[in-house]
Structures are given as C-alpha cells and as structure tokens.
Amino acid sequence: KELNEAFIGFLKSKYMLPSDRDYKQEVEDIFKKAYVKGRSGYRYRYTELYEIDWKKVDEKMLRLLKDVSVTFDKGNPLPALEVCIRYFQLLDKYADDSIYSEYDTYVYYSCEEAEELLLDAAGHSSLTEDKKRKLLGEVRSLKEASSLSNYGLCDVDDLMMQLNLLLQTPEDALKMLDA
Q1: In the chain, how many H helices and how many E strands?
Q2: How far is Cα 80 from Cα 82, in angstroms, rounded to an integer?
Q3: The whole model's pTM is what?
Q4: Cα(first)–Cα(last) distance of the chain, in Å?
Q5: Looking at the DSSP assignment, which residues form a beta bridge with residue 45?
C-alpha cells in the first residue's frame, strides 16, 4: 500500500500541474492520518489516547517536500512556500511531549529540510513584493508561536532574520542589523 502511495505521489508530481494540487490540504491530511489510537488505564477503566506518529509525519513530509522541490526547480516557488509554512503552523499546533518519544530524531530532519526549502523559495526571482510581505507576516506569526522554539523544531528567530536579509533591500537589511 505504501509503495502504491509513493508511486501515485510520483505520478502526481510528474504529470499534474502545480495548480491541480492543494498542497496545504495535503499537509493537513498528513497530520490527520498520523494519529494513532492507544489505550491507557487500569483494568476496565481504559481511556482512549490519540497521539501523532511522528515517524509517519516525517516520512510523508519528506516525500511531499521532495515533490514541491521539483516544482520549485521548474520555476514555481509558491507550492514550496505553502507547504513549508503550513507544516510549521501544524507543528506548532500539534507538537507536544510525545515528540520526544522513541522517534525523537524524526521530525527534526524534515524541519531542517523545510527551513532550507523555504529560504531557497523565498529568494526566487518570481516572487512579487506582495507575496514577500505576506511570507514575512506568516513567519512573524510563527515567531510568536511557542511550540516550534520550545521543542527545538525550528529556530524561528534565525529564520526570520535570514528571511529579512534575503527579502529586504540592502539598505533596509543594514538598518535592521544595526538596530
């Protein structure tokens, strides 16, 4: 089944136009499908627990990041930006102590990949000033989010600094560094 999903993902990335895919929804689906149901309790008083299988999230996100990097390489940075921002937003929403479970090294790798792809896509020449401002606003809202930094998933302050340096004029970037 996993092989079929991988093959279908490959076919979609090769033959579907980027406008045919809803990348934000795909990221949300990854999180929805990663919930694992378990039980906790004594004897007959069980409580059902739901937690996220972070290994599954990491594997599927790495595949999706590879798909959108193909569209980025073809000259369209928007899917990459959408996926990376939505991934960080959902990580902030769902991250909890279970992220430190037995798969503690997962998710960090996909976060690094998403960070790199976000910075590469943000520097693309086809982005308009309006899209750059929108991107900075979305990353600024992530900066206010605490889970990404608290769990060490992403250094949002550093990401914000790099984006500011990348997207602003050299004069504005120097003013920001001096402040």
Answers
A1: 9, 2
A2: 5
A3: 0.78
A4: 54
A5: 42
Cβ 80 vs Cβ 68: under 8 Å:
yes
CA distance 91 to 144: 14
Cα–Cα distance for residue pair 175/58, rounded to 1 Å: 38
List pLDDT tens digits, range 35-57. Answer: 776 655 555 455 445 678 888 88
- Name the amino acid, one letter, at 126: S
Taking phi first (over 0 means left), then psi (-120 to 50 degrees means alpha), and beta for anything else, what does residue 49 get?
beta
User: Are the C-beta atoms of residues 94 and 53 closer than 8 Å to each other?
Assistant: no
Q: What is the DSSP string of 111-160?
A: HHHHHHHHHHHHT-TT--HHHHHHHHHHHHHHHH-SHHHHTTS--HHHHH
pLDDT digit string, tens, across residues 51-91 = 788 888 899 999 999 989 988 888 889 999 999 999 999 98
Q: Identify whether the C-beta of residue 63 lies closer than 8 Å to the C-beta of residue 84.
A: no
- Tokens linked to 74: 């073809």
